Structure formats: C-alpha cells, structure tokens
Amino acid sequence: MRNIVFHEPEVYETYDPVRSLSHAWDCIRVPIIVPLLRIAVYICLGMSIMLFIERVYMAIVILCVKCLGKKRYTKYRLDAIKEDLEKNKNYPTLLVQIPMFNEKEVYKLSIGAVCGLLWPSDRLIVQVLDDSTNEALRTLVELECQKWIGKGVNVKYETRNNRNGYKAGALREGLKKHYVEDCEFVVIFDADFQPEKDFLWRTIPYLLENPELALVQARWKFVNADECLMTRLQEMSLEYHFSVEQEVGSSTCQFFGFNGTAGVWRIRALNDAGGWKDRTTVEDMDLAVRASLKGWKFLFVGDLARVSIWKKWHVIYAFFFVRKIIAHWVTFFFYCIIIPATILVPEVHLPRPLAIYLPASITILNAASTLRSMHLLVFWILFENVMSLHRSKATIIGLLEANRVNEWVVTEKLGNAMKQKYNAKASKRPRSRIRERQGLSSSSDLGTSELSYPTKDDNTMTREVCRDLWALMSP
Known about the structure:
Blueprint lengths: L16 H52 L9 H11 L5 E7 L6 H9 L8 E7 L4 H16 L4 E5 L6 H10 L9 E4 L5 E2 L8 H6 L3 E6 L2 E2 L6 H23 L11 E4 H6 L10 H11 L3 E5 L7 H36 L7 H16 L9 H24 L16 H10 L6 H6 L8 E3 L13 H11 L2
Parallel strand pairs: 1-2, 1-4, 2-3, 6-9, 7-10
Antiparallel strand pairs: 4-8, 5-10, 6-8
Pfam families: Glyco_tranf_2_3
Keywords: Glycosyltransferase, Golgi apparatus, Membrane, Transferase, Transmembrane, Transmembrane helix
Organism: Rehmannia glutinosa (Chinese foxglove)
C-alpha cells in the first residue's frame, strides 16, 4: 500500500470557438487594429473638414448671389440682342443634336419638342443621331422624322453601322456632315429632354453678345420627380448640383461641368478643345475640362484670362478632388466603416463635434436646396450612403483605368409611361388631399428631363484627363 501513488484526475477542457475568437481579437486589437483605425480616423476627419469648408464657401457665395440678385448672366443685354436679331433678321444657323439609343418610350416626345422650338426654319437643322440596335424601332424613329420633315422642319436622320465611342462617337460623326459647315452653334439634348419652345431665344443671344463664350448650360427640372421615393431622393441630390454647384461655378468665374444635355456650344470652341473624344464615357465632363483650360468662358443660365493658376487649381482641387473623390470616400469609408468600427474598438476616441456636428452640417447644406423634400432627409441619407459605395468604386475604377472604365450602360427612359399607368389606376379611386399636395408636378424654366437609376457615374475620370490637368499646371 505504501507504493501506491495517487494522481489527480486530468481535466479535459472543451474547445470554445467564441472564446478563441475573443482571445484572438484581444491579441490583435491593441497592437494592430487601434493604430490603423486611428490613422483612418485622422484622414477621414481631415477630408470631412475639407468638404465642410467647401460646402460653407459655396453656401456663402450662393447666398450673396441670391440676396444681391446678380447672377452671371444678368450682365448680358439679352433684350437688346433679341431686338437686333428680329430687326436685322441676321439669325445664326443652329444645329440641334438628339443622340438616342433604343429610346422606345421617349423618342416622339424629344423629337416633337425639339421640332417645336421657336427659330426661323431656314436657320435650324435638327439632327437625330440614332444608334438603336432594334431595327423595328429605327424604322419608327425614321418615320417620326419624316413626319416633321413634311411639316417643314429640316430634320436629318443619321445612323451608324457601329456604336464606336457611344454618345461621344455619335456626336462627333454628326458634326462631320457637310451641312454642318454653315452652323455656328450646336445645341445638344438627350432623348429624355423636352425643352421649352423659347429655349433657343433664351440661350443663343448670350453667345452672340460675347464671342469668348463657349458654352451656355441651361437649368432644368425633372418631369418625374414625384414618381416614387427613389426619384424624390435623386432630385434632392441633383438639386444641390444645379442650384448651388453650377451657379457658384458660373458666378465666381470658375469652372463648372457640362451636364451633357440642354447645353449650347459654340462649334469653333468645341473644335478648338479637340472635339468629342471617346477615351472616356464621361465625354461631357471631358470636353468641358479641355475647353475651359483652353481659356473659353462658360455661362450657367442660372472669365478666364488665358487660364490662370487659380483656375487650374480650382479644376483639380474643388471640382475633381473634393467633389468627385473626397465627397464620396468620406461618405462611404468614414460614415459606413470607420465610425461603426470605433464602436468595436473603444481605445480609439472619436470627437463628438467631428463625428456628429460636422457631418450633420454638411448634410443640411446639401439638402437645403430641396426644401420640399426635407421630411425625407433620413431616407436621403440612407440613399446617399448606399450610393457612396458605387460612386467610390466608380472613382477607383476610373483613376486606375480598370477594364470597366469605358463600360457604357444605358438606362431605359420610360417617359410618361409610368405616369400614365398610375393615372389610370388613380382614376379608379379617390385621391386624398395629402397626396395632392405631395404630387405637384415639377415645372422648369427651360425644359424638363427624366430621373432614372444612375448607371454611369461622372466620377469615372480617365487617366488622360488627369494628365491634361497636370500638364497645364506645369510652367
């Protein structure tokens, strides 16, 4: 019995994956995660401050413009130019281009609206650039053109055997036609745009007054803004762009981007800038950058000496860096990733004024241009956060010139089809007063366009545009 040795029973611990993960997280959080997250917080806070300063600056400028009532275009003698045109009958020849691609629902509306523009018929050429792949639809569009030709409108129906360059390629080929040689200005309307009849009378005189003016960009609203919640949210984002960004850029003699439609170009300026190029799917912004850096002036109806350093700095910093890169990256990385991550890592302190008050101020400044939709502010914030993912991705794709940089996806235009279906259903049931107040149609001074789900983001900036800008920055 004395040789008997008693051993303590062995205790076998069961494997707990939760404890293992928790232990692994504790091991990497302090030495690795905390420093990286702190750096990310500082970077995002810096970008947020840059964005806030830019928004406050634009708010101050737009308030001065509204209070003083002096927009850039008010200095032109519009009425005197109109009287001179009507008296001397020296109307310039205009080319109106309507690029379209399988626009089944809206081709009649756009062609009809353009053919109804007030301008001498012998000084107006309507060019329908049809890249449709549906042969039956091509026939219908051609028949619509023939109908207006029979009414005395000079309509040219042009097609191509390929879609090289997409919209830019179609516009470029259209300007090569022999009958364009006598045209002094070109007006561009997308297939979903419906200009008012006096559009030309309210834009062309500005170009006649100032020979250094290359572009007159018109303001418009959206015919289907009240279609659903999604279109209302998109309107909130785009209202800020038109009523603030474009107006500030025009009023302070700075750069603003061409919107691709409802714009009037001086053909000589367009050619001087190198014409339409299909190196990028954001051909409108690309052309605007090149023309602006050539020294041409823009006017938003709504001066460059030969381009100054301040002008170049504004194009690179304010227009591209802050508005097209920082604005989307801050929204996605800071609000959607960094702030939630700080909750899991309590060692990283995020100052409340920078985490709450600064984003709230930026949001209010952005949404203030659409007061009628302020009650949708929470939904708009969610919408912008989701869209920031796609916009950030588009920015990275464009900057890195990835395979998808020149991918073109056309959003189907429905025109009034959805509205007509809704009206048919609504006529069968009584309409509430609340719905009547919310369903006010969006009118426009110079025309209406259609909101759609965004598929082509203007942040897809190609390497060639960046190279042009930096080349001009060098002495």
